[in-house]
Amino acid sequence: MTIDIVVLPGDGIGPEVTDEAVRVLDWFVQHRAVPLRMQRRLFGSAAWAAERSTMPDATWNAIMAADALLFGATGSLDQTHIPPDERRKGSLLRIRKGLDAFANLRPVKAQPALAESSPFKARTVAGTDMVIVRELTAGMYFGTPRGVETQPDGTRRGVNTHSYTEAEIARAARFAFELARTRRGHVTSVDKANVMEAGRLWRDVVTEVHEAGYKDVTLEHMLADNCALQLGRAPTRFDVVVTDNLFGDLLSDCAGAINGSLGMLPSAALSAPREDGRRRALYEPVHGSAPDIAGKGIANPLGAILSAAMLLRWTANAPAEADALEAAVQAALDAGARTADIAMPGETVLSTRAMADAVIAA
Amino acid sequence: MTIDIVVLPGDGIGPEVTDEAVRVLDWFVQHRAVPLRMQRRLFGSAAWAAERSTMPDATWNAIMAADALLFGATGSLDQTHIPPDERRKGSLLRIRKGLDAFANLRPVKAQPALAESSPFKARTVAGTDMVIVRELTAGMYFGTPRGVETQPDGTRRGVNTHSYTEAEIARAARFAFELARTRRGHVTSVDKANVMEAGRLWRDVVTEVHEAGYKDVTLEHMLADNCALQLGRAPTRFDVVVTDNLFGDLLSDCAGAINGSLGMLPSAALSAPREDGRRRALYEPVHGSAPDIAGKGIANPLGAILSAAMLLRWTANAPAEADALEAAVQAALDAGARTADIAMPGETVLSTRAMADAVIAA
Ligand SMILES: CC(C)[C@H](C(=O)O)[C@@H](O)C(=O)O
Ligand SMILES: CC(C)[C@H](C(=O)O)[C@@H](O)C(=O)O
């Protein structure tokens, strides 16, 4: 039973870090017989340059047919030469929605080897080990009405809509509770129930799901502003954090400050199980396309490589291999392997390729 | 010309910290002839307990007639015994809107004396000196439609609307640029223009205001998620940050982690200038009502006292006195004065009252 992976390197540093993640996965195909078949597809700016389409039909069909995607990065605002329609067509948001990949997992772990380069004191972050479960297919990102309208007096007004149905909240909550059961059994649900009615509904539905089937997991509710503060003050108190699409976007970057660089952080976005019990999935590093360092071979590939480890765990059902890969990353860091973003003055800086070599060697 | 101040102690630790701020202001009335007249009014839960109204007419009329409010804290979700209508009537949001206090200033300064108790390394935060200008009367907090509706299939859906007019964005931007001129001349405008059309409008209008009259100030745009990260990684890079109501709520708590406690942070919310050129204003510490420590006399009064310093600066037009008060807070901290929230193991902990005494003595 072969597992079909579509590789979408995307823009900026996407191709260089994705190349390394693919090389690492190839290692598992060859040495551990993990049955992956990977095919690379053009997407976004690169596809626009080659074929004048940000989402060629062949790419979209491959995405929809695949078991999982390995995604690099997408350029955000530097696509002004591409018509707006085409930008939307080739957007990451369309892929997330198309896959119905509602459960975005963003693990954040303090790396003892990086204690020096972290902006935080070691006593603040040591032992941090949390997963943010960000709802990824609803909320502010997809709500309508949206857009800019001209008012009767001729001036403009911009509108976006934050919308959540009970079903959308409930499935994110269930996912978080299930995940907490495999971890330390604690869920923090984050909203602005003191200001937003939709946040009040979020809180009510999460509580109902908890009451109905997850009383073995502890649940606390936290306001989003307080969560932003606590992620900086006391990150070790969190196990699983579940929140909506927009708060999840900000809060995962708050948490990302812990190791000093987003370059380390992986993510997975999972759909509901299909008929065969498997979830469609999109794996991507949390960092963006970083156009300023693209093409230089200096980007940190660990976010992409750790995303490949999540692929081994969640799509290839190969937890031992996922553990082995995570341990290899840890070992490489412990041995002093550093890309520029996580190096301290005086430390030897590795290229993207050399960092991946260090992981493969480990 | 007497300046009328309405004091609203509110809930939880609100009364105890506000008492100290009033005592400090009284000192300036007596020793520096600052012409303040302060009157205390019931509001929120306390008013409900006393008069079965969260916003007695006398309070509302006093608020609307005053030059400024000195506000303590408001309980957020622990008001379940109060009918929803009454909760809204006595809400802080209604006061902010009623005063049209659109420009919320939240200064964040690293306190060298607190370097030990900060969760961050000293090298990260040393020299941090920024003001977040949060738009306070529009956006997600006030947009309609809002609420929870029952869908045709009987399940619920929650909706809130993020809405900004060109005029609302422009006045916040102008305020930020004017403020930057009195500081280091740099503005960071924060949005999610890559996802939200209203964020795209925010970015466009801020750019237009900049082009039209503030080319002497430097302007950069930043995505909100990246800003959350940069506030943790490199807070010294910010001078004035301008953003919408909801992002401002989260990002000011991110920045608040810098000293380890929200207890230190003041804020001011200012209206457009009235006919006499003065702005109506609401001064409040950034921290909340902290019901867990209320009534114990251990809360940190510095957020309230520094809010009083902002009152001296912005409402009483007494910048020398404001500077003197800020210097006194600094001196008290330098001399080792610590409330429980900012004390390190082994340090002597002062009560709320004793901390204020230390400031007054200085
Ligand atoms: C690139 C952008 C659309 C995206 C988002 O806002 O979701 C990114 O910030 C992320 O966190 O994955
Ligand atoms: C108490 C609450 C309504 C308020 C807000 O969300 O604006 C608070 O968090 C703040 O930041 O002033």
From TrEMBL, chains A, B:
This is 3-isopropylmalate dehydrogenase. Pathway: Amino-acid biosynthesis; L-leucine biosynthesis; L-leucine from 3-methyl-2-oxobutanoate: step 3/4. The keyword Amino-acid biosynthesis applies. GO terms for molecular function: 3-isopropylmalate dehydrogenase activity. NAD(+) binds at G288, S289, A290, P291, D292, I293, A294, G295, K296, G297, I298, A299, N300. Residues 4-359 form the Isopropylmalate dehydrogenase-like domain. Catalyzes the oxidation of 3-carboxy-2-hydroxy-4-methylpentanoate (3-isopropylmalate) to 3-carboxy-4-methyl-2-oxopentanoate. The product decarboxylates to 4-methyl-2 oxopentanoate. Binds 1 Mg(2+) or Mn(2+) ion per subunit. The record marks Y141, K192 as: Important for catalysis. It is an enzyme of class 1 (oxidoreductase).
